Amino acid sequence: MNLIEEFNEYRSQMNEKILAEDNKVIKRIFNLDTNAYAEGSVDIKSKEMIGLACSMVLRCDDCVKYHLGKCHEVGITKEQIFEVFSIATLIGGTIVIPHLRRAAEYWETLENQ
């Protein structure tokens, strides 16, 4: 199993288990997350790039992988991704560099699948 399949399978499996507990607050948070990235006055590509940049600055590798996958799905180019990487690294500072490395690796894996 490759890096992408492993991440997506684990994420799906755990989300199912969490949502099966039928906790109203958790379900509402998941719903808010889904709706926040839906098409609106800001297009989906821009929302995913914003999500990616924020995730990098907050140093959440799972979130970075998720948004990279979505960015790849909606047709964001490598050049655009690296512009997002540059903004996130500028805003987040050098502490973001390890996450930048893992993000670049994950993007490369997405491109090569």
Automatic annotation (TrEMBL):
Carboxymuconolactone decarboxylase-like domain location: 27-105
Stored SUPFAM superfamilies: AhpD-like
Alphabetized UniProt keyword annotations: Oxidoreductase, Peroxidase
InterPro entries: AhpD-like (IPR029032), AhpD_core (IPR004675), CMD-like (IPR003779)
Any one GO MF annotation of this record: peroxiredoxin activity
Short name of any one Pfam family annotated for the protein: CMD
Protein name: Alkylhydroperoxidase AhpD family core domain-containing protein
Organism for this UniProt entry: Algoriphagus locisalis
